[in-house]
Design brief:
Distance between the termini of chain A: 11 Å
Strand order of the largest sheet of chain A: 4-3-2-1-5-6-8
Strand content of chain A: 15-25%
Number of strands of chain A: 8
Largest sheet of chain A: 7 strands, parallel
Helix content of chain A: 25-40%
Oligomer: homotetramer
Order of helices and strands of chain A: EHEHEEHEHEEEH
């Protein structure tokens, strides 16, 4: 937090998950992501994703349909690789490292399903002081008692969004790590 | 360039340079940066910077005063470290590596003055296929004949902006490296 | 795997964990790390760490005392920040991003205790196709059935090392992701 | 430099340049790189490269033939992508960002020929406080008077190595940026 006090800016919420979900849950994960994007936009939040397909595209589509803003943090060097619902593409050229930017640029992180890349983003989010809400995703628990950012396992899209917005508001008070 | 053809999106132009310019030229460099930001905004371009002070702040201030959009790609994890004229802060947590994102997320790059960090950004821009316009900055010349992105030494702010916009348009045709 | 077949090189095993462990388990974690380093060196493995204190230093000390080789992948730009038991310091200048290099440069990863940074390394290891052995560390489980790299919860230092060496050998057969 | 004084470790010298040199100068560049690697090894230096072909392979081959040590900082995730003369492969998974590690892990940097990637490494080296020796490579000059690390244009392989070793020794006194 700078000396001049908090900015009057909207919360940035990352939605992370599989770029090509398959299996029996794929359809449900995409529906959830789209609903989450829509609810975030209606609450005035900016939706940040990795800019590609699957969960990223569904969340962005939901946000844009509700009149919201979307940022896509792309792994490659071509902004036109972004899906059609990314309003502000950021081509990073970072490859795998772009995952760090997705979570650090956000005030809180939502994980919908996801594989190993999503787990790495959950870990990076916590490392950077961002709390995480999961929906049908990873369970992560330490053998030790740790303070700092939190992980909440949500039961549906509304629960996801209300907790994520609360986590984002708390981060603005607590400041960065 | 994706199969569905070029996006109808504004050009993104990076303005790079010293975060704390000093010496006899400092005042002139900041005036140039502000004028460049203003001219870019009037031409409909989005101004991308590293989000901090000096040349980055001056270019952003010029753009905002002319009604334009500004993105700040920050090295740290706190979006509130951005200067007051950044409309879309991207806190990366990348440290030095954020310089790669500043240039890769842009269609062309403008260097105003600058020290070693600016030289590294010029090199990274060319490496990522982005052409560069310099004003009172570095001269870089290869002992060998090379194709690809170009470096133009401009004489004033108007020359900077007109060449940068041309370079950006050419990149959209040529596609990424 | 290149066309010319597997190299005759020793396995590289990363040991990750807290740089400043505290709490009731701290002493035991450091003892484990030192024993693991020693066992790895006696098995002919190269011990890779983040090069700083705590678990990183204990594992390196154990390896060097047993006549082994140690590599330290440092976050900063000064190789002299490495602990005294790092034989090959790699100063990266990458900050947080150096965690990716620690796990990618290794054939398998061992996590001893650890906080959020360690969780991010476990996630990055799996993302990069490296299997992980944990000892008194994080439990990570997906809600979905996933193939690929594995996580093994070990019960003591000997179990850690024997499984990690097996994981490393399997990676060389399977090749990179 | 840590409080306990300088380490007794050999200088690490990076040799950077084109991975696939072509054109009329290609043969000469590779001969220079091999001779430089050989001279560095005889002087007790460790040769650091990006681990792939062309200038990187030639410098590593020269060093190994003279009984020296070589480190290869690879862009990908597979250590077996290293050329046959890399004794310590570091697979980073960083893509373009690995260039930062090549120069930061070294005490001084030698550029032999090279295209845009080499220019970005020269810029990153100076940014990280490493001085650079060039041979038939880029000329970089600032319009402003700058202190800090230096660039020396050498005339042959012996001049390259003697100046690079001097730059490396000066860095150890001066410490990191």
């Amino acid at each position: 937090m700078s000396e001049r006090g908090p900015r009057l800016r909207p919360p940035y919420i990352a939605v992370i998950g599989d770029g090509e979900p398959h299996g029996p849950d794929a359809h449900r994960l995409l529906e959830w992501a789209e609903e989450i994007g829509s609810l975030l936009a209606r609450a005035g939040a900016v939706v940040v994703t990795g800019g590609l397909g699957g969960v990223m595209e569904a969340a962005s589509r939901g946000a844009v349909a509700a009149g919201g803003q979307t940022i896509g943090i792309l792994p490659g060097a071509d902004p036109d690789e972004a899906n059609d619902y990314v309003r502000t593409p950021i081509a990073t050229g970072l490859g795998v490292v772009r995952n760090l930017v997705v979570v650090t640029s956000s005030d809180a992180v939502i994980a919908v399903g996801g594989r190993h890349g999503t787990l790495s983003e959950i870990g990076l989010a916590l490392r950077m002081g961002r709390s995480v809400v999961t929906l049908s995703s990873w369970r992560v628990e330490s053998d030790h008692r740790l303070g700092g950012p939190r992980v909440h396992r949500a039961r549906d899209a509304r629960d996801v969004v209300s907790v994520a917005l609360r986590f984002a508001a708390e981060r603005e008070v607590a400041g960065p790590p």
